[in-house]
């Protein structure tokens, strides 16, 4: 049994001008110890998916349907009390914005210790001692002094380390990282990714990493889910996805990655882009969600939504001509 | 920290000097003449003039001001024109009821208003929020004397739970003291509660949408701890500020409340003094009120550093 199974998850938001289908029937699973990356551009529903798993979607206006089975239990059906016992303990989360995700008026040590006090029943002294240990683990120098400091006394990279320490404090089985490196500069990004990889092995957690950065994906993921307009359009092991992307959207994403040399060599090339914009999630889309931007669009794409089909072992894509398109391109 | 406090205390001196000048000048240019009041309706202009000379009111403005300031610096607020008692003695007699009233109101208002604002923010846009804010608008827009008479009518006259009027010094026992203070404090607290609850709600709404609240939820922190630990401490600066500013409301409200409930406090003292143009008493009480206000807000500034580690002086 996989650790986490997201099954036909739908998270919709009621807005004054219609229902926003931020996540519309997404399924995937995460195995124990595995790293799954969810990629897609802004607004594709990847963060909402993460928030839905944590049940942190404000309701109303949001509403999640489908099933999210964690160790066999459907999280969407758990009472809030039970869900609180899971948050920060079995499943924890790291957010994009280390600068604003820590409480500015509480000491670092207290913030890290809090989940251990809540979930493991440690007293204040024990929790603070454990917090210092966690700070050591995430490589913060002078952990004892730092644990007595406030977030504004730390740099962005250090704060993200603190967030990681906080998330790993109760040795979670699943760590959800929502764009953990996006707000950091490149050298710090690499450090944070290294740290996550290292700690994942030590703690034995599975990681669900949400990102728009394919560089990050290549570096940490075992498998990849590509989302577009609230749907999953492709899923594959990471090597296979980079080597043989089946969905035109994935190919577009890969082509849009800037490569060193491509524009610096003789001819100044233009960065490839995917033309058009993400369709509004408030209107129900007939046919393929990507049809309006797809270079390979055909009559059938506009009429029928393509089903997710296995194109190779462990490789799913939702495209009417995913295989053929690839062969032509190859 | 001690040097900070010392510096801030010293900085209140110029403020108090300006207040003193202002109070003195205001009374100087205000119409009305204590000599005429003392002399009565039948007195001739010559009699009034004689009394005025006796009181020293005929001397130039500047001379009188300098003399007054000189007195104050020696701890002497002057002598009442009418009772011939030292102003400090008059104030000392009246300070307990007013201080009791203000403190009681402050404690009561904060204890009610802060949770009310927090819950209104948590339940924003529900009927709970609307009820709380409706109450706040009502509390803010109903004059103190209306609330006072209504409350006195219901709880003192009809139900007989509390005395209608008067004040029992704490020396006569905490029970009677509290019971004599409850109705006036509730009356005075209305406006104050409205003010604090509204600001608390607004500050909390802002804080509750912050990323770190989401982080706390993701850690599995319960609703109550989110509201009262993670959020309230972040919302504290505007709340503490408005509590400090609101002390001005308390001072103004105390004057009216003391009249409604016949409490022999500073409010009554200053109202009587104003009616009789008893300059030294008016000046003394206003100076005292100003000092209280300045000190309270000095306290507020110092509380900032306790609630928000980013604030350092």
Automatic annotation (TrEMBL), chain A:
PROSITE patterns: ABC_TRANSPORTER_1, ABC_TRANSPORTER_2
Protein keywords: ATP-binding, Cell membrane, Membrane, Nucleotide-binding, Transport
Presence of the UniProt keyword Cell membrane in the record: yes
GO MF: ATP binding; ATP hydrolysis activity
CC per GO annotation: plasma membrane
Membrane topology reported for the UniProt record: Peripheral membrane protein
GO terms for biological process, alphabetical: peptide transport; transmembrane transport
Source organism, top-level taxon: Bacteria
Protein family membership: Belongs to the ABC transporter superfamily.
Name the UniProt record assigns to this protein: ABC transporter ATP-binding protein
The organism of origin for this protein: Hansschlegelia plantiphila
From TrEMBL, chain B:
InterPro entries named in the record: BPD_transp_1_N (IPR045621), MetI-like (IPR000515), MetI-like_sf (IPR035906)
Gene Ontology cellular-component annotations: plasma membrane
GO molecular function: dipeptide transmembrane transporter activity
Plastid listed as a keyword: no
Transmembrane domains' residue ranges: 12-30, 99-122, 134-157, 177-197, 235-261, 281-307
Chain ranges of the ABC transmembrane type-1 domain: 95-304
Compartments (UniProt record): Cell membrane
A Pfam family hit: BPD_transp_1
Family membership noted in the UniProt record: Belongs to the binding-protein-dependent transport system permease family.
Protein name in UniProt: ABC transporter permease
Provenance organism: Hansschlegelia plantiphila
